[in-house]
Amino acid sequence: MTPDDSQKTSKDGYIRLLSVMLSGSRFGIDADQIERIVPPNRDDLHHNTILRPPFIAPERVPPPQSVALIVKSDNGMKKVLIVDSLQDILTVPVADLRPFPPLMAREREALAYWGMVLIDDKPVTLLDLTRWSCQCS
Amino acid sequence: MFPSSDEKYRNLIKEAQQLADDNVVDVNERQVQLMFFSVGGYPFALHGSNIREILHIGQITTIPGVSELFLGVINIRGEIDSVLHLSRLLGCKPFIQTPKSRIAIAVLDGIRTGIAVDSVDNIIDVAIRTLDHHVASLNEPVRSLACGQVSFENQIVPLLDLKQIYSRLA
Asked: Which domain holds residue A115?
């Protein structure tokens, strides 16, 4: 991302995505859904709801490079997703976003996958963290 | 008693005409294009009109939490399509990628998906009258996904119905 990219907004037809690794796969999360990114071992995090993706075993220990994403919330109830690593912050033209494959509709609904985008020609799943945190509550 | 020479030639000509008549192709006969392919070691067919293209298998990206009926997704010239694990849907042994493996891009009602197959064996036109629409002799789960059977290389091959396959996934 160049300094110029950081100035681009959704009004200009761009979206800022956090590129994160989770369970060995790369996901994209709309940066506007994130309040803060903090180390996962902070004591105050344990007072919040930790979001656990259904495809990750509960006993799995996050790797050392993991980070905690605090999801923006209107009601003060903070929810946190701990990801294996934060890879990048990308500014992507909205026109480059692709729909999630229609035959995978069940997964789209259950896992709050809202679309896909190609990063380095590789498909990356877009995760709606706001919807997911509502589903998990 | 042997036939006379004239009678022998008349019989030969008659036999030749009979052979020729048997091999005549009726150009007006209605035909349908079928793609014959193998999955899990078994032959199957799909209507060619449902197949947009056939690709060598590139990189398939898995998506966590997705049904085991999908191998993942692929990037096809900037579009992202699901890849159906058809062998699992048909109850065959799991798909194993080999140099002969292909992904057939199928389309029905505007909905696209890739289908991973062991090999694409042929794409040919067959006479519609040769399709057998009875599926009772097939075993489940193939029976509920088939709309008929067709003869191909001395085998009776289930003709799969893409609409049934899609409805199983929905």
From this structure: 3-135
Which tokens hold the place of B37? 């392919």
Domain B31-169 CATH assignment equals 2.70.98.70: no
- Domain count within chain A: 1
Nearest to A101 among B59, B65, B82 (CB): B82
ipTM of the prediction:
0.85
Beta strands across the sheet bearing A122-127 = A85-93, A14-22, A25-30, A122-127, A113-119
Give A-chain residues touching B78 at CB under 8 angstroms. Answer: 118
**Inter-chain residue contact A105 with B84, CB threshold 8 Å:** no
The pLDDT tens digits along chain B (170 residues) read 455 667 777 777 777 677 666 666 566 789 999 999 999 999 999 999 999 999 999 899 999 999 999 999 999 999 999 999 999 999 998 899 999 999 999 999 999 999 999 999 999 999 999 999 888 888 899 999 999 999 998 899 999 999 999 999 87
Contact list, A108 vs chain B (CB under 8 Å): none
